[in-house]
Amino acid sequence: xxxxxxxxxxxxxxxxxxxxKGLSFEIExxxxxxxxxxxxxxxxxxxxxxxxxxxPDSGKVYVDGTDTSSAADIFTVRSKVxxxxxxxxxxxxxxxxxxxxxxxxxxxxxxxxxxGRRIEFxxxxxxxxxxxxxxxxxxxxGQKQRVAIAGVLAIxxxxxxxxxxxxxxxxxxRKEVVDVVKKLNKEQxxxxxxxxxxxxxxxxxxxxxxxxGGKVAFSGTPREVFSREKELEKCxxxxxxxxxxxxxLKERGILSGDVVLTGEELEVRLCxxxxxx
Length: 277
Known about the structure:
Blueprint: E1 2-12, E2 18-28, E3 32-36, H1 43-51, E4 58-63, E5 66-67, H2 74-80, E6 81-84, H3 97-107, H4 112-125, H5 141-153, E7 159-163, H6 171-188, E8 191-195, H7 199-202, E9 207-212, E10 215-220, H8 222-225, H9 229-234, H10 241-251, H11 263-276
Parallel strand pairs: 3-8, 3-9, 6-7, 7-8
Antiparallel strand pairs: 1-2, 1-4, 4-5, 9-10
């Protein structure tokens, strides 16, 4: 079943320039999708269209079959979609971690018993139970972003969107967040859409959508997408580091075979090549 569907969607901001142009694609329930594109490609605008933060100028966006442009249904749409933005400090509304997580369900009018269950689920799923009573100001960037994810999870969304959610974090913080997201997708069956410019984060997705000029340039599995180096370059994107190194070694005849995506895969290929002499 479809979690998200775009039907010939266009959108422009006040300047009048179309940021999204005739955009059409589908995302299935339980799918983990990475959306890639250079600055200005329309990827963050696409995320906001899914959450109903902005409405299409033309075309339709559907979330679980519900039209996001229907004023009567917008609450339903936003209860199904949780969005995590770049800066966790902009999403935190309380000084204590647990108070921040409880904010969403309280504002939705969820009863106290259910709120208690949701807090436990969200804190555990995001891996922040150990510092539920700590001031948010004491946390690292990665920890704060995990709290932001917990706050979103507390509203029990079907779809989790991360809009450049790791761009302000160091490598350790990025890994913390990506590990949580992968766990939610695999163990909870949550539909995950991550908008990112970190190619390594896209490697674990089920599918990658590459955007350019407000449209889908191409899409496919990570292995399919990262085998198209020249097309990625035209879209202003690069390869994961391991894939780039593999391609350069392959050009020199040192390695052979299908594209690699991770450092672990590259290490295996190098060891195999060494053994063969």
